[in-house]
From TrEMBL:
<keyword id="KW-0418">Kinase</keyword>
<dbReference type="InterPro" id="IPR029057">
    <property type="entry name" value="PRTase-like"/>
</dbReference>
<dbReference type="GO" id="GO:0006015">
    <property type="term" value="P:5-phosphoribose 1-diphosphate biosynthetic process"/>
</dbReference>
<keyword id="KW-0067">ATP-binding</keyword>
<keyword id="KW-0547">Nucleotide-binding</keyword>
<dbReference type="InterPro" id="IPR000836">
    <property type="entry name" value="PRTase_dom"/>
</dbReference>
<dbReference type="GO" id="GO:0016301">
    <property type="term" value="F:kinase activity"/>
</dbReference>
<keyword id="KW-0808">Transferase</keyword>
<dbReference type="GO" id="GO:0005737">
    <property type="term" value="C:cytoplasm"/>
</dbReference>
<dbReference type="Pfam" id="PF14572">
    <property type="entry name" value="Pribosyl_synth"/>
</dbReference>
<protein>
    <recommendedName>
        <fullName>ribose-phosphate diphosphokinase</fullName>
        <ecNumber>2.7.6.1</ecNumber>
    </recommendedName>
</protein>
<dbReference type="GO" id="GO:0006164">
    <property type="term" value="P:purine nucleotide biosynthetic process"/>
</dbReference>
<dbReference type="GO" id="GO:0004749">
    <property type="term" value="F:ribose phosphate diphosphokinase activity"/>
</dbReference>
<dbReference type="GO" id="GO:0005524">
    <property type="term" value="F:ATP binding"/>
</dbReference>
<dbReference type="InterPro" id="IPR005946">
    <property type="entry name" value="Rib-P_diPkinase"/>
</dbReference>
<dbReference type="GO" id="GO:0000287">
    <property type="term" value="F:magnesium ion binding"/>
</dbReference>
<dbReference type="GO" id="GO:0002189">
    <property type="term" value="C:ribose phosphate diphosphokinase complex"/>
</dbReference>
Length: 269
């Protein structure tokens, strides 16, 4: 999905699958903001069409990427394609005046994108959610791995817990998970913070360990949440997780354990 100056860009498909962009020109202004939500690879073609028309109009244009596609493929692995690099090169070729990436999976994204800046709304949401849940000094902010800890290291919370996990390099499955830093007082509330949730195996593993250590309530705050979470175990009735707080950057399905938080992009750009 693409928004131009807060208005949806309307598209249709011809029978052979080609894209038609409809009723577009009235959306153009002198200073334009494109908000890009990736759902499938065809959305990149739509972004190409939108930017090329704006170039023809000779107007200024900035891009907000709600979730950077291919951001998990952020390093060169022997025999595999470095797809984040290629997608970043494609976006660079469109020559936006400024690119904002909401909660990139790693610093590699902004290193590869020209004129780019990372936005971390989770850091703004966290104190509000903690206040809503009645957190006290005995409760804990939890980072499920070293990547999350590095991403939010400037959050300024003293009572943090950090997990370390080991994945099988062939299957990608988590083989081991331990609490590397911090402690969990008996009866403490915990909120796990990260950028992205897929099926939720990492968070389920962390939540189960926290529960065993004596946590009373466990929550998840994650900026991006894939639809795959709906078919995983994280939201099951027997899950130790009370609720997920997330944005609509990747999904908007209603679920009793999901609470959506709106990203007010005007606060950041």
């Amino acid at each position: 999905m693409i928004l131009l100056n807060k208005q949806p860009v309307i598209t249709e498909q011809f029978p052979n699958g080609e894209t038609k962009v409809k009723d577009f020109d009235h959306l153009i202004s002198a200073d334009n903001l494109v908000q890009f939500t990736y759902q499938e690879d065809g959305d990149l073609i739509k972004l190409l069409f939108v930017k090329k028309r704006l170039d023809e109009a000779e107007v200024r244009c900035r891009l907000v990427i709600n979730y950077m596609p291919y951001s998990r493929m952020d390093r060169k692995i022997e025999g595999d394609l470095f797809t984040l690099n290629y997608v970043s090169q494609f976006i660079n070729s469109l020559a936006f005046d400024q690119v904002y990436v909401i909660e990139p999976h790693s610093a590699k994204t902004t290193q590869l994108l020209n004129n780019s800046e990372a936005i971390y709304p989770a850091l703004d949401w966290l104190p509000r959610v903690m206040a809503e849940l009645g957190f006290t000094d005995q409760d804990r902010v939890v980072f499920p791995d070293k990547g999350a800890a590095a991403r939010y290291e400037g959050a300024g919370y003293a009572n943090c817990c950090v997990f370390d996990k080991t994945r099988n390099p062939q299957t990608g499955r988590i083989e081991n998970m331990i609490l590397k830093q911090g402690n969990v007082p008996i009866g403490a509330k915990c909120i796990i913070v990260d950028d992205l949730c897929s099926a939720g195996g990492t968070f389920l593993g962390a939540a189960e360990i926290l529960k065993e250590m004596g946590a009373s309530e466990i929550y998840l705050l994650v900026t991006h949440c894939e639809r795959r979470v709906l078919s995983g175990k994280l939201l099951n009735e027997g899950s130790p997780l009370e609720k997920i707080f997330t944005s609509t950057s990747m999904m908007n399905e209603v679920h009793p354990k999901i609470e959506y938080i709106t990203i007010n992009i005007e606060d950041y750009v």
